[in-house]
Each structure stands twice: as C-alpha cells, then as structure tokens.
Automatic annotation (TrEMBL):
It holds the Pfam family DIOX_N. Keywords: Dioxygenase, Iron, Metal-binding, Oxidoreductase, Vitamin C. Catalyzes the 2-beta-hydroxylation of several biologically active gibberellins, leading to the homeostatic regulation of their endogenous level. Catabolism of gibberellins (GAs) plays a central role in plant development. Converts GA9/GA20 to GA51/GA29 and GA4/GA1 to GA34/GA8. It comes from Petunia hybrida (Petunia). This is gibberellin 2beta-dioxygenase. InterPro entries: DIOX_N, IPNS-like_FE2OG_OXY, IPNS-like_sf, Iron_ascorbate_oxido_reductase, Oxoglu/Fe-dep_dioxygenase_dom.
Length: 332
C-alpha cells in the first residue's frame, strides 16, 4: 500500500473514539470441547450475534502457513499485487471496498470457495507463490468450514431443532456460495495526528451470509456494536476464532439472533492481518424463518432466495441496513 500524505488520508472516514481503545472483557467465550457449549452459543447469538471460540480443532500449521503466505503476498510490490485485481468482486483490492464508493485503510484478496470458481486462473496471477497460497487457502478453508458446521450443529441442538444439520447442510452443499477474504491493514502513523479520532480500516457493516469465522493476528482494531449502539473493542487473540451471526441467520431465526454490526479501525504502529470465511447457502436456497422457531408468530421477512438477497446487497453501501428491504411492514 502506498503511503498517503496527510491531505490524502483525510479522504478516509474518521470516527471519534476514546484513545487508547479500552477492551471489552465481556465477549462470550465458547469452549467447543465442553458439552454445555450449546446453551452458551444460543445466548451469545441472542445477546451479541458474536462470540469467541477456543478448542476449535483447526490445526495451527494451517493457520501459520496461510499467514506466512499472505504476508509474502501483501509484501510484494503493488504492481505485482495489482495483477490480481481489481476485485470485481473477486481478486486483489486496495482501499476500495465493493463497487459503490466505500473505501478503507485496507488491502485484500477476495475469492469464492465455490468449486465452480476458476481458482486456478486467479491463483496463477498471484505471483511466484500462487500454488502455495492456493493450497494454503484450501487447507485452511476446509478446516474452518468443518468447525463452522460443528458450531452450526451445536447451535441447532441448542435451539432444540430436530434436524441437527439444518444450517450446516447449507455450507456443506457443493453449491454453497461461500467466500474467503484475507484483509491486510497496514499501520497508519498519521493516525496519531488525529487526536481522539480513529481512521476506518473497514467501515461498519453486517455480513450478509449465515456465519462468518474470523481469525486475526494479535493486532487490535475489530469493534462490534452492542444492542444499545455502543462500539466496543474486541481484544485480539491469534489463537482463537471470532464468530459473527450473518443476516441470513437472523432471518432463519426470525430475528431471534441479530447479525452483528462490526468494523475495523486502523492501527498507528502495527499491521493487522485477518482471514475470514463467510459461510453462505446455495444461490437458489430460500432464506426464511425455520417453522420450529416461529412460535406461532408470522415471519418478519418477505420471501426471498439467497441470490435475490445477494444481488440486492451488492447494490448497497457497506453501512446500509440491507435486511430492511426484506422486512415485512408491521401492521398497525
Ligand atoms: C460495499 C459492499 C462490499 C460487500 C458488498 C457490498 O456492496 C455490501 C456488502 C459487503 C460485504 C461485507 C461482508 C464481506 O466482507 C463481503 C465479501 C460480503 O459478502 O458482503 C463484502 C462485500 C465485498 O467486499 O465485495
Ligand atoms: O478484517 C477484519 O477483521 C474484519 C473484516 C470484515 O468484517 C469483513 O471483511 O467483512
Ligand atoms: Fe464483516
């Protein structure tokens, strides 16, 4: 990423924030090896739409291999990285997020995990390490997807849904429309000059899919919004995974779970590297509340398929409430 002069940096979003960020100690912690995790996961999804997972079973070597391949890629010259861009939506992106004018202090690689995605074509332009990075992504994504499915099955059990794989089968489907993203947030020393303010790395948003699994290095930056609208800083933990409830899971639980609004602030000294798996359903899948979760109530949402939601989502700005377009108007 090029170093920006002060006037250029002012084109990025800046938010008021207490400095240094005070970490929130109340992020729900789920130990996947413990039998009581099902009730704790349900509670975390209801209260925060967000939790942290330990004893996750994802091999450390898959994480460190991908991390070192990603560092190699992001350290290569901009002209090389740009050969894999621009992201439309897949490929290498730098500062531009999506195609509707959002920007952030971030560079990234976005790929589809769908088997039909021409990964080879994309990987072949990732430079000398293309095969290494492709294999590292594949190993990592397979392991993380397995963990995401385990979480979704425990969640279904916690919700007393008879069909344990009701959510996980959507990720397991060979047509699952899932996405993987590597985000690199370079340090931004100029941040120090905006006393009491922070530069946005990745602007506030919710994730449209069912579930997102995030792992980052030990650099802070991730914040989530609580139900009362307050932003809290999530203490980084490179040995754990963070789980976000996505918009689709909000709909499938008829609003019992809320998709979590989150954002990333740039750091003035350390670079942040994050890897996120976004587990989505097949394009043709109808996204609707599960009958057993309706409790005699009507659906809060109009009927739609994932492809309809996705098309609509990609027309929105990052911070928009994308689900509002699919909510039924409450009768007065
Ligand atoms: C501004 C945008 C970027 C995004 C597509 C969108 O139009 C609105 C949703 C955004 C988001 C957020 C979560 C994931 O990072 C992402 C890949 C996704 O599925 O939805 C991004 C999209 C993107 O960066 O292309
Ligand atoms: O990079 C991060 O830590 C989070 C990014 C994010 O929320 C996203 O890519 O959707
Ligand atoms: Fe996100």
């Amino acid at each position: 990423m090029v170093v920006l002069s002060k006037p250029a940096i002012e084109h990025f979003s800046i938010v008021n924030n207490c400095k240094p960020p005070s970490y929130f100690s109340g992020v729900p912690l789920i130990d996947l090896s413990k039998p009581d995790s099902k009730n704790l996961i349900v509670k975390a999804c209801e209260e925060f739409g967000f939790f942290k997972v330990i004893n996750h079973g994802v091999p450390t070597e898959f994480i460190s291999k991908l991390e070192s391949e990603a560092i190699k890629f992001f350290s290569s010259p901009l002209s090389e990285k740009e050969k894999a861009g621009p992201a439309d939506p897949f490929g290498y992106g730098n500062k531009k997020i999506g195609s509707n004018g959002d920007v952030g202090w971030v560079e990234y690689i976005l790929v589809s995990t769908n088997s039909e995605f021409d990964y080879n074509k994309f990987a072949s332009i990732l430079g000398v390490n293309s095969e290494n990075i492709r294999d590292a992504v594949n190993d990592y994504v397979s392991a993380v997807k397995k963990m995401a499915c385990q979480i979704l099955e425990v969640l279904a059990e916690g919700l007393k849904i008879q069909q344990r794989n009701v959510f996980s089968k959507l990720l397991m489907d060979e047509k699952s429309d899932s996405v993987f993203r590597l985000n690199h947030y370079p340090p931004c020393p100029e941040v120090e000059e905006f006393s009491g303010k922070n530069l946005i790395g990745f602007g506030e948003h919710t994730d449209p899919q069912i579930i997102s699994v995030l792992r980052s290095n030990n650099t802070s930056g991730l914040q989530i919004s609580l139900k009362d609208g307050h932003w809290i800083s999530v203490p980084p933990d490179q040995n754990s995974f963070f789980i976000n409830v996505g918009d689709s899971l909000q709909v499938m639980t008829n609003g019992r779970f809320k998709s979590v609004r989150h954002r990333v602030l740039a750091n003035s000294v350390k670079s942040r590297l994050s890897m996120i798996y976004f587990g989505g359903p097949p394009l043709s899948e109808k996204i609707a509340p599960l009958p057993s979760l309706m409790e005699g109530k009507d659906s809060l949402y109009k009927e739609f398929t994932w492809v309809e939601y996705k098309k609509s989502a990609y027309k929105t700005r990052l911070a928009d409430n994308r689900l509002v377009l699919f909510e039924k108007i409450a009768a007065s």
